[in-house]
Design goal:
With about 130 residues, the chain is of the alpha+beta class. Helix content is about 25%, strand content about 45%. The termini are far apart. The relative contact order is 0.20.
Length: about 130
Amino acid sequence: MRRPLLAALLLAGAALGSAAGVAAPRGERSAKATTPVTACVKFRQERAGEEGLRLELHNGCDYAVTCKLTWLVRCRGSRAESAVSRSEDVALEPDGEQSTVAAAPACGSEGWEIKGVRWYCETPDKT
């Protein structure tokens, strides 16, 4: 006899939970699905003459994002040293685009190498 009573109570609880979801205000019932940052921000790099590499970000999201670009610079020839890390922070509005040139002016005419280019974007803190 306890089992039918327990089953009835469980069903009543489930019905009340469903009714609470229906009674909730529309905005609270389901959050608007947004496209993930990784799906709508695009990155491109290309040689910028003898200057370096042009690193470009385009925000195809319908919300603002903040991004970080990082890369390593290594000189060639007599100035060859260990690689030096460089970075730049970028804020992009919806449909915004920004580029920067990853350059190695300290290397002079002996040449340079830029490698390890990485980028990461996220939504800005709402605090």
